[in-house]
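Review box. Two proteins, two foldings.
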Amino acid sequence: MPRTDPRADPPADPPALGIIAGGGPLPGRVAAAARAAGRPVFILGLEGFADPAVLAPFPHLINRIGAAGKTLQSLRAHGCRDLVMIGPVRRPSLLDLRPDVEGTRILARIGRAAFAGDDGLLSAVIRVLGEEGFRVIGAHEVLRETLAPPGLLTRAAPDALAKADIDRGVAVLRMLGPADIGQACVVQQGLVLAVEAVEGTDAMLARAGALRRDGAGGVLVKLCKPGQDRRADLPTIGPDTVRNAAAAGLRGVAFEADATILAEREASLAAADAAGLFLLGLEGLSS
């Protein structure tokens, strides 16, 4: 039996996971999952977006987006190498950004992508963080169980008209995706009632509800953009999405399976069943 060398170094502790947190509960869920796996965490909450109550159980700092110098310094001071970017953030105007010296330098390195769509900007941010010595990973790599599976998840199911609306929604998003506009649209009886832009899904649903027609309700379709970097800004649905879809008079939600975060799965499914909505994971989509 081999003897253990008492001089051998003990295994090194894993480096801390840095979480750049926008709004909602998912930053806390990522932190809790990493901590449960024995990994220390540090959350950098984005001021005006991150929920202090979500961050409270974990080591954290709330910092404004433009203060990049303090952000990078804090992440390094806490031993973070891997980073997760999670939670919705509304892009500020350059006037509101008020970048510090480091922020100005980073903006110069991001270049024209600062004026591109969300996916182009996020890809540039991931590149710059890599140049700064960090590795950006997807939230789904920590929360593997949050990816929505394929198939029907609810008691309600789409009929032929709803399936036709889903197909129409997929076609629309496939055309709009290369322009880096949004990840979602609402289709009713073949008519595109709304397309997601900077306002986000919930505001789009409210707008679509005001435009709905008589007769069979429409559907919400959410997909990754073609070629999207899946380490950030995966499509996300949760209980609020379901409730807002029901309030808009929709009959269901269709999403890209294995590429959509289903937040609070049990609550989302319960809300959908209570409202009589279907949740459907779409397979075979080329992104």
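Next protein.
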Amino acid sequence: MTDIISESAFMIIARRLLTVRAGGKDIPVAVELHAPEQRADVEWRCNYTINWPDEKAERWGTGVDAVQALQIAMTMIGAALYASDHHREGRLFWERPGNGYGFPVGNNIRDLLVGDDKKYL
């Protein structure tokens, strides 16, 4: 079956700016979420990018519809942020240090949540 790619395949629908504090400098880390795209009759894909200071991570979540693909992509973003060395070292933040990043995570890493994420997600 041929992949179906919509016009919105590379359209950024949401962007969150996080910060990594390193060497006394604040370095912006943009997290970009793209519009879900239909790839086949029963598969949707939602691309996302995390622009780390040392690399650009481009990944995606897939689902049976656009909503599921979006949900999975957001959960994967949360997992990537909480599993990062930047988080482990306490150098990554959004709005203020120790308050979380505002992205959901899977049940298997909920123990890593901090701040408002721990309280509300």
